[in-house]
Design brief:
HIG1 domain-containing protein; 94% helix; membrane; transmembrane helix; transmembrane; Hypoxia_induced_domain
Length: 65
């Protein structure tokens, strides 16, 4: 279960990072309206990914597996 969640979180961060880089390279009005919002989404998704990893490691340590 945690493996799927970790992969989904990493994929979400990667897609958001790619969209943010595209926005920066495109420039102009598009970059002004999207870059900051995409950066905030990426940071939030990274926090969720780290939280999933921590919960998974704690769960695995307490289960003794």
């Amino acid at each position: 279960m945690f493996d799927i969640l970790v992969i989904a979180a990493i994929l979400a961060v990667t897609v958001t990072l790619g969209l943010g880089l595209y926005s920066l390279f495109r420039g102009g009005d598009y970059a002004r309206s999207h870059s900051n919002r995409l950066m905030r989404w990426r940071v939030g998704l990274q926090a969720v990914a780290v939280l999933i990893l921590v919960v998974g490691m704690v769960w695995k340590a307490t289960q003794g597996a």
